[in-house]
């Protein structure tokens, strides 16, 4: 039909992943990386913030876009071949909003953000099928405001109740990586993606010119951290 738009190939692939995940809730995906092609990586680039602070290499989006296709082709080749090296994160601290406490953030390089976004785009359709309707954290199309509205509605329906706020102190800093890997492999068994995620977990942290390699936890601030680390550790529908 004249004027009809062509289907988005990336969205179509994501729909297919979601359908398979929904049909087989116990299945571990062994072949996801074949979805990651130049078009997929280009979409990941467009979904990545361009105005964020640069990482340890100082590269900006204005620099990267000058040779965008060549850069993405090189990134894709390194990711698929296993030669990609996760650069260290630049450590900064931001206020937590509670007294004088601060929260450490790790700022990845632009290229690292693009590749992390590409991996998130492959993982989200899987985990979206596994989560309960009451889960709101870091999910596409969901927000804290929606969570508060749902909580308010349930409270009104019950005619009042006790509400308990719980926060896991230093969760990201103390996360057991072996436990995380085991949870991740329940649904994701693609070697390329698992190696990339492992490299990001082991990436060093650069702070005041000193490079360190924490043995536990995962860095906050990356594209991949909230969707993957929180989702795989949350309550799944099993």
Describe the structure.
The protein is of the alpha+beta class and 238 residues long. The chain has helices spanning 9-23, 38-46, 61-64, 68-81, 110-127, 144-158, 171-174, 177-184, 191-202, 225-233, and strands at residues 89-95, 102-107, 205-207, 210-212. The longest helix is centred in the middle third of the chain and has 18 residues, at 110-127. The protein starts with 8 loop residues before the first helix and ends in a 5-residue tail after the last helix. Mean pLDDT is 86; it is low at 233-238.
Annotation field: number of helices: 10
Largest pleated sheet: 4 strands, mixed
Q: Count all strands and give the number.
A: 4
Q: Based on helices, strands and strand pairing, what is the structural class?
A: alpha+beta
Helix residue percentage = 40-55%
**Which H/E pattern describes the elements?**
HHHHEEHHHHHEEH
Q: Averaging pLDDT over every residue, what do you get?
A: 86
**Low-pLDDT residue intervals, each spanning 5 or more residues:** 233-238
Strand content: 5-15%
How many angstroms separate the termini? Answer: 44 Å
Rounded radius of gyration (Å): 19 Å
Global shape? globular
Query: Within the largest sheet, what's the order of strands?
Result: 2-1-3-4
């Amino acid at each position: 039909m004249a004027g009809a738009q062509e289907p988005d190939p990336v969205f179509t692939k994501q729909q297919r992943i979601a359908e398979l995940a929904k049909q087989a809730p116990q299945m571990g995906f062994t072949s996801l990386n074949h979805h990651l092609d130049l078009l997929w990586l280009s979409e990941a680039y467009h979904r990545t913030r361009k105005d964020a602070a640069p990482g340890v290499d100082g590269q900006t989006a204005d620099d990267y876009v000058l040779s965008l296709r060549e850069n993405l082709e090189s990134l894709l080749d390194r990711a698929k071949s296993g030669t990609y090296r996760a650069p260290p994160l630049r450590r900064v601290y931001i206020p937590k909003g509670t007294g004088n406490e601060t929260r450490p953030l790790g700022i990845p390089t632009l290229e690292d953000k693009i590749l992390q976004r590409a991996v998130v785009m492959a993982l989200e359709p899987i985990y979206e099928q596994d989560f309960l309707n009451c889960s709101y954290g870091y999910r596409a199309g969901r927000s804290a405001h929606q969570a508060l509205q749902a909580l308010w509605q349930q409270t009104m329906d019950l005619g009042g109740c006790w509400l308990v706020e719980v926060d896991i102190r230093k969760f990201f800093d103390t996360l057991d990586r072996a436990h995380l890997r085991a949870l991740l492999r329940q649904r994701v068994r693609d070697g390329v993606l698992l190696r990339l995620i492992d490299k990001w977990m082991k990436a060093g942290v650069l702070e005041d010119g000193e490079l360190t390699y924490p043995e536990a936890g995962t860095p906050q601030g990356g594209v991949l951290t909230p969707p993957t680390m929180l989702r795989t550790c949350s309550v799944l529908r099993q």
